[in-house]
Give the backbone structure.
Amino acid sequence: MNDVTAEILLFDGFDELDAIGPYEVLANGAEAGASLETRLVTLEGDTDDDGLVTASHGLRVEPEDVLGEPDLLVVPGGGWTTEGGVRAVVTDGVIPGAVDERFGAGSTVASVCTGAMILAEAGLLEGRPATTHQVAIDDLGDSAANVVEERVVDDGDVLTAGGVTAGIDLALWLLEREFGAEIAEAVETEMEHERRGEVFG
C-alpha cells in the first residue's frame, strides 16, 4: 500500500501509551521509508477550551486535526474499569458511531487495549477474532467477538491488540504488513523494542 494516512483517535481518558506508542512507531516507519503520514485526531468539539484532550494519567495533548477518512484508524483504550475513558465513550455512543462510519467508508480499523470495546460497540467485532486488555476480556467475550487471548490479532480490515504495550507490537506489525519486514525491523531496532509472540490471523 502506498501513501497511507493513519489517524489515532484521542478522547478524554485515553491511555497515553495506547496512542503515543503506535504514533512513535508509525512516525519512525515514515522516517525509515514508509509512505505514511500519521496524525493525532479527535472528533469535532471533543477538546477543552484550550484545544487539548486530557489522557488517563493527566497528560494533555493537542490533536493535530479532526477525524477524517484515513486509510488506517487506530483507537486507543483506557478507563474501562472507571467512569471515564472508554467506558464513557461506549456509553455515549458517538465515537463508536464515527468508527463504524469510517470502517464503512473503507478504513482499516485497529484498536489497542480496551479500545476493542469501542470496536465491539461499533459492531465491528461480530463473529471476528479479537483481543483486549485482560481487565476487559470477559466483557469482550460477552460481545459478539470471538475472544483470542493473543497479543496482536489481525483479521484483515480489523485488528486488535492486548493491553497497553501491545500497541507497539501492533504498529510494528502494521508496518511489516503494509511496507515490508525491512522497515518494521529498522523501527524495532531504532526503538530497541523486541516484539513478543506471533500475530494471530
